[in-house]
Amino acid sequence: MAQYSASLGNGGLTVRPVNDHFFEAENDRDTSFVRNQKTREAQRYAAEQLQIMADEMSRATADEYQEDILDHMERMEQETIPDVDSIDIQTEIQWFMRPYLLDFLIEAHIAFQLLPETLFLTVNLLDRYCSKRVVFKRHYQLVGCAAMLIAAKYGDKKDRVPTIRELQSMCCGLYEEDMFVQMERHVLQTLNWIIGHPTIDNFLQMILSEVSYDPEVEYMALYLSEIAMFHKDFVSTLPSVMARSSLALARHILGRTPPAQSEWAMSYDTTTIVLLSQHLHRPSQVLVRKYSSAHYGMVAVTLEDFMTKQAAVARRHTIAPRVRQMACPPSIQEPENTLAPQAQQLTPMTPQKTAPPPQTKPMPHGYPTPPETPNEDYFEHQAMLAAKAAASGQAVAAPNPTTPMPTPTSVPVPQPPVFQF
Q1: Per-residue exposure over 212-241, b if at least 16 CB sit within 10 Å of its own CB, e if not
Q2: Which of 58, 214, 334, 370 has its CB surrounded by the most CB atoms within 10 Å?
Q3: CA-CA distance, 354 to 351, in Å (whole number)?
Q4: Are residues 228 and 268 in the same domain?
Q5: Is residue 261 assigned to a domain?
Q6: Number of domains, the chain
Q7: What are the beta bridge partners of residue 14?
Q8: CA contacts within 13 A on the Cβ side of 9
Q9: Which of 160, 190, 220 is the last residue of a domain?
Q10: Tens-place pLDDT, residues 82-111
Q11: What is the pTM of this model?
């Protein structure tokens, strides 16, 4: 029971509790909250400092062993690259089935929130298995699920590895649970338990660690690399070549200036870039939805805008020559049908003769000298005149086959002027 004390002063009667535990408890609670908050801030600061030190030590270690790490990754990518020619001789699975399976795997990858490298490793395990084993069409999806299960166990977080029941549910109960276990074991035995494939994402992170971080460039490079997974042309392309080429193309699309990096990071394959740019017109809608989100910087929208501008420029370059051709004057541009008469003029032909004009009269001392050789009508006309002259008793002079010369006259013939130099 609370006890109170009363005192009488100038201001009147004052009542106070003898033991003021209530107010002391409130003050202690406030002080404890402030003390705990300071402790948490100190612990957070210490954790941040430890992380910074760990990153610096990791960076120093990576710089020291960078060359050895790169040599090992390049050797492993050669050993774990799929053979596209072996996949080409599969009897049941065809290349047109590949986009459907990859769409399914990408949706599962998003649903389980797996790392980017897990998706690339999944596709690599799938292609390597199809390079060594005959796969039936009904088992194609099962092989893809087993490859994703292996890839997630190899490099992803343990709490994000999908369970067999979850995979079975995503396949709509098409396969029994023990079939996933059997296929997983069969894939590992076929690949001789070699899973350590350096993915495109591994090489991208190595290249991007040399420069300041630009998330939009990274997301665009990942988007282009995942577009390449859908096409047969890039199945046997080395991940290091694919990473450098997609990164160079991503910087070009985004208008970024290539930073100063090592010679290895700056070298890229022009043929791969050109081939990749030819497959950007119709990407998978699953990829478009994935990279249209704000989490990936909406790089799919950026790529679509870039392709639209490129198509408009190509149309302008195609229409411009036609406009210039239509604007040429007729005197410069010669129509096509005018070539036919020229060809006819160059062809030797027998000349056609026309009848002499009616006013043409024979000269008294020989043949006339018309523009053309006389034809049969002229000679018939001469014979008729000779017959009439013989009937009337007139003498007719014999025609002279040569052109008559004019008789000399006393009229002086004008001479051309003589120029003196």
Answers
A1: eebeebbbbbbbbbbbbbbbeebbebbbbb
A2: 214
A3: 10
A4: yes
A5: yes
A6: 2
A7: 7
A8: 5
A9: 190
A10: 999 999 999 999 999 999 999 999 999 999
A11: 0.64
